[in-house]
Amino acid sequence: MPEPARLPEVQLFTDGACSGNPGPGGWAFILRHPGSGKEIEGSGGERESTNNRMELTAVVRGLEALKRPSHVELLTDSVYVGKGLSEWLAKWKANGWRRREGKRWAEVKNEDLWRRLDELIARHELRYTRVAGHSGHPENDRCDELAVAAYQPFLGK
Question: For the segment 93-116, what is each residue's pLDDT rounded down to a tens digit?
Fold first, then answer.
């Protein structure tokens, strides 16, 4: 019997940034294939967003850039993304994409992006690794630089 094909291993570094929260926002990712050293960067901005939305968009866009199922190590400074993946996502899905707010049900914030992320992680094996933001981590610092540059055109407009 042939061995199952091993999934390619990649690292996905992400960051999001906003000038004000809400305000002009930017997101960025670096996708690296350690085996070959190949690396791609992506970034974009929005006129009006939130920091959490930009953090989440960076992860979604990075995963969308993958052409085939992969073993992905996600490295981000976003506690929101980390808790969402490890604690909240399964509960939201089980509760019909609603969350508890006191004794009432409330909508999941950024539900469109969480649903898209849920679709994407079903294709990949994902491992979340938290990195400290603004701590001299080269890839996190680069993503922050790209994300900030991506919202600059929306300032003062």
Answer: 999 999 999 999 999 999 999 999
- Going from the N-terminus, what domains does the chain have, and what CATH number goes with each? 9-86+125-154 (3.30.420.10)
Q: Is 37 helix (H, G, I), strand (E, B) or coil?
A: coil
Distance CA 135, CA 139 (A): 11
pTM score, two decimals?
0.93
Active site residues: 15-16, 55, 77, 134, 144
Q: What is the pLDDT of residue 156?
A: 78
Q: Catalogue the E-assigned strands of the chain.
A: 9-18, 23-33, 38-49, 71-76, 98-101, 104-107, 125-130
